[in-house]
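Predict structure. Chain length: 307.
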Amino acid sequence: MQCTNNLVHVKNIWQHLNSHTQEYESVILFFMIEIENLGFKYGRLSVLENITMKLEPGKIYGLLGENGVGKTTLLTLLAGLKKADRGTIIIDGKNPYKRLPSSLRSQYYLSEEVAALNIRAYDYAATVGRFWPNFSMKKFQELMAIFENDSSGKMNKMSTGQLKKTYISFALACGTEYLFLDEPTNGLDIPSKAQFRSAISKYTSEESTIVISTHQVRDLENIIDPIIILDKQDVLLNADTKEISDKLFFDYGSELKNGALYSEQLPGGFIQVYPNVTGAESKVNIEALFNAVHNHKDLIKNMFSNN
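Prediction complete.
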């Protein structure tokens, strides 16, 4: 009798789990960014068309593309500052354009242009930081120290680089699940760019999804992975560096060879990109990758179309 009761109990549990499988799967899928058939226009000027991709947690995405393909527009759409003309963006199961408090608390968008406010950096952080539940003044002060920035200084008296570093410090101190940065290293000097890389590595959560739009790929080459290369009408590439190196070979030799997707002469040799037909390992050069994709859009897209 006891055995029969146990079997019935197990059967009931199984039926309960089975009936809620779709619900559980949907909850799991919520913890990512899903973009499908996204389109956006400024008046009659089409900026984004048919953009589809998924962004997963725990990764720092580098968002690359030619001027005018819509990198900044995409970031503002992700942040809910613009409304898509068609298609969808879903973040944690929500439309960011609805600007729900739960969505706003979980994300921070840092634009390329920042405001030089007539307020001390410390006071700004203490006042505005209250809108983000995970904001830490301790982290803000630590980040300002990493950037060798004075939090007691007024923001409208800061240099361009100092002001940018103040906003970067604030963005990282917010501790959000989603962080969207538009050209964050523009205006930073060489030491500050190294400090930025260190800060991103140390002060972001392993569960966060970070998207960095940049033209300065050399500044961020060692921290962005995966790489997204955007075109107006498509996502040409959305892959991590391992998959890229599995499918493309980056040759740093002294001899120029035929059949390269891209080649460039460097001091002492060449950087050349080929399809990786032998499975050999190589270090991804993001500038060379971008140029190879730019020169062979359809080929690269088809090569990585299993994503």
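Summary: The longest strand covers residues 45-55.
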